[in-house]
């Protein structure tokens, strides 16, 4: 049985006061008895504020990225042990914005994935195709090569402690959501590919969908057999919109 995970990526938004208020409202939104989990990914400077707001609640939190090295001369970077010290349990790796704008190659994403795990963090590995790749029929090949880059370095066993997020780049922040059928098709492709290596690990792995998820489309998306929740950008920036997604499935 895979618990649904509703995860909010705040990107480079909020300030300290709104971060605290938003996290508190989200934490207060948990329904007793629900198995649906919630996690938030605030900007680095607000992680300690979130840690206070989430204390003694079921709200999980993590960072939006990390450096692939564990410490050292990497000016301006943040490493996994620092995130662990602040109480993070998860970290995003390979978000499409980092891949497109900040030099995250497949190989670097694989390093980040392993560095996160070595420190005890659960990596949320983001993968997805661009519009151009989809329109030229390369979606599955792109997804497979992004996955293979991590599998080759980390091995299938590493996916026992990871979350995947399928985020078609053309659906992120555009208001264009993949249809439940389109998303399910790729989620099933991902699970089948991993099942060929280890059926148990693939069966237990949570595969989130990301790309313009909102309260009005979450239930239908998350009802698909291989969609285990969502990674949410824009709609995670107000508690009303984020909790509407949670309430649609909790
Ligand atoms: C994201 O940034 O991961 C994302 C899915 O954004 P949005 O929900 O705004 O499309």
- Provide the list of bound ligands, each named once: phosphoenolpyruvate
Mean pLDDT: 97
Structural class: alpha/beta
- Count of extended strands: 8
The separation of the N and C termini measures: 15 Å
Number of H- or I-type helical stretches = 11
How are the strands of the biggest sheet laid out side by side?
Answer: 1-2-3-4-5-6-7-8
Low-confidence stretches: none
Strand count, sense and barrel status of the largest sheet are: 8 strands, parallel, barrel
SSE order, as H and E? Answer: EHEHEHEHHEHHEHHEHEH
Alpha carbon gyration radius:
17 Å
Using the alpha-carbon principal axes, give the shape. globular
Note the beta-strand portion: 5-15%
Portion of residues in helices? 40-55%
List its salient traits.
11 helices, alpha/beta, 250 residues, binds phosphoenolpyruvate, single chain, 43% helix
């Amino acid at each position: 049985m895979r618990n649904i995970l509703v995860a909010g990526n705040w990107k480079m938004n909020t300030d300290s006061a709104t971060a605290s208020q938003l996290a508190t409202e989200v934490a207060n939104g948990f329904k007793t008895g629900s198995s649906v989990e919630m996690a938030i990914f605030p900007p680095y400077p607000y992680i300690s504020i979130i840690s206070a707001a989430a204390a003694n609640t079921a709200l999980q939190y993590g960072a939006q990225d990390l450096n692939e090295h564990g410490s050292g001369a990497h000016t301006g970077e943040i490493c996994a042990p620092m995130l662990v010290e602040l109480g993070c349990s998860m970290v995003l790796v390979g978000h499409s914005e980092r891949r497109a704008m900040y030099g995250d190659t497949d190989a670097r994403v694989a390093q980040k994935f392993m560095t996160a795990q070595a420190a005890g963090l659960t990596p949320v590995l983001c993968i997805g195709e661009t519009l151009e790749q989809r329109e030229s029929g390369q979606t599955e090949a792109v997804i497979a090569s992004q996955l293979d880059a991590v599998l080759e370095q980390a091995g299938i066993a590493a996916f026992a402690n990871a979350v995947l997020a399928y985020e078609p780049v053309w659906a992120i922040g555009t208001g264009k959501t993949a249809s439940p059928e389109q998303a399910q098709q790729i989620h099933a492709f991902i699970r089948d590919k991993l099942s060929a290596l280890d059926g148990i690990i693939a069966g237990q792995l949570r595969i989130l969908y990301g790309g313009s998820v909102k309260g009005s489309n979450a239930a239908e998306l998350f009802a698909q057999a291989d969609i285990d929740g969502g990674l949410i950008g824009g709609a995670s920036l107000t508690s009303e919109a984020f909790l509407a997604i949670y309430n649609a499935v909790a």
